[in-house]
Design brief:
- The complex is a heterotrimer.
- Helix content of chain A is 44%, strand content 22%.
- In chain A, strands 3-2-1-5-8 form a five-stranded mixed sheet.
- Chain B has a single domain, classed as Cytochrome c oxidase-like, subunit I domain (Cytochrome C Oxidase, Chain A, Up-down Bundle), CATH 1.20.210.10.
- Chain B is 66% helix and 0% strand.
- Chain C is elongated.
- In chain C, helix 3 packs antiparallel against helix 4 and helix 4 packs antiparallel against helix 5.
- Classes of the chains: A alpha+beta, B mainly alpha, C mainly alpha.
- Chains in contact: A-B, B-C.
- Chains A and B meet through helix 2, helix 3, helix 4, strand 7 and strand 8 of A and helix 7, helix 14, helix 15, helix 16 and helix 17 of B.
Chain lengths: 255, 626, 204
């Protein structure tokens, strides 16, 4: 059947504008995918946890998955722009066709966009389940985080009554944060570890992470919380297990 | 409820003394009575209400006075403009006579009719247009203050209190401006003509919706003098309950605005369902009409939740109830839920009519039929339907219900399918057309570009783990500016240029429209790509100063913002100069086939001498293939 | 899009049925918003009840006051019953206007107005006589919210039914009576909304 059709009218791909679009599509896809994936990953900087690495990876992959779609639209748009353009106060000639629909194009479009959507949902759910499971990890250490206008306080509940304003964490040990607030809603955000959870008055919320890099990273408040919201930030010091134990001792807790 | 009882005026007129009253009411009596009402309520409240001694957590007399004064303002203003005449005449059984209805429609009143409770949909459309531009101007000035303050790290010359107040004001003012920017001016002026109707279904409700917005604007502007809105546009509680009395201005603004959208929504939807011309079946109805109806119909169930959230805020502040105060058994998550149940449909309320307007223009400027009309409708319907099921994606990181994050991620990402259909329709219509390059044509390309970026970043954010990293950062701010401004406002400005000849009788200056277009689009992309970058690097939203590492990105953004401002000023000048002495427009300058181009300039009072009968859809462009 | 000339239609003399059905749709769309609002109120009630943050749903005992038991929801049910009676009166009036019985119309709409006023006053008395104040926790706040919604609805109902009675009295419904039918739609919803409130208050 398809043979018969191709004999009747020349293949779509023989048309000049279609050919042009296909070439542009390939080029645009490559450029869009490469440039935006690279720029975004670079902007996000170094990661200090598996969670953040996964996030950067996901953005990279999503970008590459979407690039062909964006590339196709850009290529089609470019092709229409390259063709003869008409400026002026009266309209150009009418187009040489009256095509109102193309079942093939629309169904292809619907199927492809559904598949892309399905991919995003499935993958997102898998990663989400992993992150959620981490909160239940019995081996994890617990830190109570309390936000108030405009400071963070950290209680190391596994180590007696140690409290600090800078967060100290041992490297490669899972930690669960139990977050609450004394006044308004804050949001506890460890930037380089890619985790964030709101600190709500009257509630305790939980999130977890495993720092995998020694260093000093940023904690910022991510929910407008009043006058000095911009200054409600502190540091997290990720140190070796031994240094962490020493620090706890120096604060009067038991490691 | 009673204002809609708009009887055909066949009852014998008993008009003479009353007519004198409605002739005397105008914007000046409205402002006069409004101010008197505010003062009277203020002093009454002061005299009657007991001092706050019952030890409740947050209640304050100050808020009681301010809220009551604003209610007094509203009552006085609506009385002064004449909104209550209709309901009370109905109550008394003295319906408006034919002559009075004509007077209300603004017959033979020249410029004066723009300052009255005029029911003619074309007058309301122009009033909406001017109101929208004024509101955009205020929001734009605030935006420039924000960007100037953020020019470079540590260089903030605004105090944190001032900065926070400005951010909140900019946010809510722009949200309201973008909500009304298409359905207000064009939904009112163009839509009834486009469907071949003589006016809206309920002309007095139409005037009511406009004058409610005018009454609401002083409430939000008064916030400037009452401490501002230092809570962002979302005004989360319990932060908002700490806020200054400026927060009461926000509350009243939202409540009045929600009423306005409610009456406008019922009115526009009824008009389209009941008053389309003979022969205009649903598959002959222009796509712009679908966009407008989807937008206002979506607002109907959505905005009451916003209204409710603010009623509870007001009760907390003024009566000491504890809806949001956890010490009294309230919950901040309650506010967030109520707010976002409205908040997510609302972004589509903004976006859909703007995209639909560009879909309406696409066939005109490509001289070919709209590609896949059915898919366009499915896209609009799909977005509208799904949009009420996605609100909690704004709350992934609040911790209110971690188990629901998965389902909400599913519904959110499903929206990408109908949204994709909008792209398909637009690009399909551009494909193999004869491009007529005008500013609206270029806007279609700009929308594809901006909306692609806005949409794709939306997919990132809909993903829960990625949202964990990016939520509350400048990335989100850049994302929604790409959708609301890059897509929405671009569509609205294109609509202005496209329908300007019909609304004003003059052509929009071509050169100025192009200069404005390029400045705005280039500036916009510079500004918000810069904002994406600082967001990815970890700059939180709504901060007045930031770490040195965000310096470069913010400088780029501020530079882009100044370009946008230049472009907007050029466009504003274009509107004023073209309106006053632009070239006279022919009846149908774009050689388009929708009905609004079949009526003369200026459009006569009742639009059509003879009501049209429609025999085909409006997209019959192109030569039939042999 | 083709335009043909056609017979002249005078817009000021549209058929009452056309105007009536248009107004009816308009009211129903406005009701969509009001229904959303009322459902929002019910959501607030059950959300806060379910959360019971800090165990502060019901008013707690303090030094100066005993622990308050929530008021019985019977009062709210009585308001609903009065509203329902008003609805029945209005239906009676509607039945009257359909058979062009002017006496029945005036009597029914007059009684409906009295019922709406009675419900309004009774609701006011209830609010003044509860054993707690609005500041005493989430339940108390929600109680006033639901009562407040009733007051607003009943106030509007009083206004509408007063107008309806007045217009019946003046004989404005002789030729066409779509006003009465639309008012009945409003009455039905108002009664349901009051019922929803009473239903919610039955769960403390």
């Amino acid at each position: 059947m398809s043979d018969l059709e191709t004999q009747k009218r020349p293949s779509v791909f023989a048309r000049k504008d279609v050919k042009q679009t296909v070439y542009l599509w390939v080029i645009f896809t490559a450029i869009i995918g490469y440039v935006s994936a690279t720029v975004q990953a670079r902007s996000m900087g170094a990661s200090a946890s598996e969670t953040m690495s996964t996030t950067i990876h996901m953005i990279r992959v999503f970008t590459w998955v979407v690039a062909p779609v964006a590339g196709l639209i850009a290529a089609m748009a470019a092709t229409t722009l390259i063709a003869k353009m008409h400026f002026g106060d009266t309209p150009p000639d009418e187009a040489d066709h009256q095509i109102r629909n193309s079942p093939r194009a629309t169904s292809t479009w619907l199927i492809v966009s559904s598949l892309l959507c399905l991919f995003a949902v499935v993958w997102g759910t898998i990663v989400l389940q992993r992150d959620n499971a981490a909160i239940l990890d019995p081996a994890a250490m617990n830190v109570n985080v309390t936000g108030q206008q405009w400071v963070w306080n950290f209680d190391y509940v596994d180590n007696g009554t140690v409290r600090s304003a800078d967060l100290y964490l041992p490297v490669n040990k899972p930690v669960v944060f139990h977050v609450t607030s004394k006044d308004v809603i804050h949001s506890f955000w460890i930037v380089q570890m890619g985790i964030k959870i709101d600190a709500n008055p009257g509630y305790v919320t939980e999130t977890s992470v495993t720092p995998n890099k020694i260093g000093i990273f940023d904690i910022r408040c991510a929910e407008l919380c009043g006058l000095y919201h911009a200054f409600m930030q502190t540091k997290v010091h990720v140190v070796s297990q031994a240094d962490y134990a020493a620090w706890i001792k120096s604060q009067g807790g038991q490691a | 409820m009673t204002t809609m009882m708009d009887r055909p005026a066949s009852t014998p007129g008993h008009s003479a003394p009353k007519k004198a009253l409605i002739e005397r009411l105008n914007i000046f009596t409205a402002f006069g009575l409004g101010i008197i009402g505010a003062i009277v309520f203020w002093y009454l409240a002061k005299a009657i209400l007991p001092a706050n001694t019952d030890g409740s957590y947050i209640k304050s007399n100050r808020d009681q006075y301010v809220l009551l004064a604003m209610i007094g303002w509203l009552i006085g203003f609506m009385t002064g403009i004449g909104a209550l005449v209709g309901p009370f005449r109905w109550l008394l059984g003295k319906d408006l006579s034919h002559e009075e209805n004509l007077f209300y429609a603004g017959k033979d009143q020249g410029v004066k009719r723009y300052f009255r409770y005029t029911t003619d949909h074309k007058v309301v459309g122009i009033q909406y247009l001017v109101t929208t531009m004024v509101v955009f101007f205020v929001g734009g000035v605030l935006a420039m203050l924000i960007r100037t303050n953020l020019g470079h790290a540590g260089g903030g010359w605004l105090q944190p209190q001032t900065y926070n107040a400005i951010v909140g004001m900019h946010g809510i003012i722009m949200i309201v401006a973008t909500i009304i920017m298409v359905t207000g001016p064009f939904g009112n002026f163009i839509m009834p003509i486009m469907i071949g109707a003589r006016d809206m279904a309920f002309p007095r409700l139409n005037a009511l919706s406009l004058w409610l917005i005018i009454a609401a604007i002083p409430c939000i502007l008064s916030s400037i003098f009452l401490g501002g809105i230092p809570t962002g546009w979302v005004a989360y509680n319990p932060l908002a309950s700490q806020g200054p009395p400026g927060q009461d201005g926000y509350i009243m603004f939202i409540c009045i605005f929600a009423l306005s959208t409610m009456v406008a929504g019922a009115n526009i939807t009824t008009t389209v369902i009941k008053m389309r011309a003979k022969g205009m079946t649903w598959n002959r109805t222009p796509i712009f009409i679908y966009g407008v109806v989807a937008s206002v119909a979506l607002a109907l169930p959505a905005f009451p939740f916003f209204f409710l959230s603010q009623v509870l805020s007001a009760m907390d502040r003024a009566t000491g109830s504890t809806f949001y105060d956890t010490r009294g058994g309230g919950s901040g998550w309650l506010y967030e839920n109520l707010f976002w149940i409205m908040g997510h449909p609302e972004v589509y309320v903004i976006l859909i009519p703007a995209v639909a307007a560009l879909m309406e223009m696409a066939p005109v400027f490509t001289r070919r039929p709209l590609f896949s009309f059915n898919m366009a409708i499915m896209g609009i319907a799909g977005i509208s339907g799904l949009s009420v099921l996605v609100w909690a994606h704004h709350m992934y990181t609040t911790g209110w219900a971690p188990l629901l994050n998965g389902p909400f991620m599913l519904t959110t990402e499903l929206i990408s399918i109908p949204t994709g259909l909008l792209f398909l329709v637009l690009i399909g219509t551009l494909w193999r057309g004869r491009l007529w390059m005008t500013m609206p044509t270029a806007s279609i390309y700009a929308l594809l570009w901006n909306f692609m970026i806005g949409g794709v970043t939306g997919i990132y954010l809909s993903d829960v783990p990625i949202d964990g990293a990016l939520h509350g950062s400048m990335f989100v701010t850049a994302h929604f500016h790409y959708t609301l401004m890059g897509a929405g406002l671009t569509g609205a400005i294109a609509s202005l240029v496209y329908w300007f000849p019909k609304m004003t009788g003059r052509m929009f200056d071509k050169t100025l429209s192009w200069i404005g277009f390029w400045f705005v689009q280039i500036g916009f992309n510079i500004a918000f790509i810069g904002m994406f970058l600082v967001g990815l690097a970890g700059q939180p939203r709504r901060v007045g100063s930031y770490a040195a590492l965000f310096d470069r990105g913010n400088m780029i953004t501020t530079g882009g913002a100044y370009l946008i401002m230049s472009g907007m000023l050029v466009l504003l000048y274009g509107v004023i100069s073209s309106w006053t002495h632009g070239a006279k427009a022919p009846m149908n300058p774009w050689f388009a086939k929708t009905l609004e181009w079949s009526v003369p300039n200026p459009v006569p009072l009742e639009n059509f001498d003879v009501l049209p009968v429609v025999t085909s859809d409006a997209y019959g462009y192109g030569k039939a293939q042999s | 899009m083709s335009v043909e000339t056609h017979g002249h239609v005078n817009p000021h003399h549209e058929h009452p049925d056309v105007v009536g059905s248009r107004n009816r749709l308009g009211l129903i769309l406005l009701l969509v918003a009001d229904i959303a609002f009322a459902l929002g109120v019910i959501f607030v009630y059950f959300y806060l009840k379910g959360q019971n943050v800090n165990d502060m749903w019901l008013p707690k005992a303090s030094d100066t006051q005993d622990a308050t038991v929530p008021v019985s929801s019977m009062g709210a049910w009585y308001v609903t019953i009065i509203a329902a009676v008003g609805l029945l009166f209005h239906q009676y009036a509607l039945a009257g206007v359909k058979v062009k019985n002017q006496t029945q119309l005036v009597l029914g709409s007059g009684l409906a107005f009295v019922a709406s006023l009675a419900a309004l006053i009774y609701q006011g008395i209830l609010m003044n006589n509860v054993s707690f104040t609005i500041t005493m926790g989430a339940y108390a706040s929600c109680y006033y919210l639901i009562a407040g919604l009733n007051v607003v609805h009943l106030f509007l109902t009083s206004f509408i039914s007063l107008g309806n009675w007045n217009r019946s009295r003046l004989g404005l419904y002789v030729s066409d009576h779509w006003h009465v039918r639309i008012v009945s739609v409003w009455w039905i919803w108002m009664t349901i909304s009051s019922l929803l409130g009473a239903f919610a208050l039955s769960f403390t």
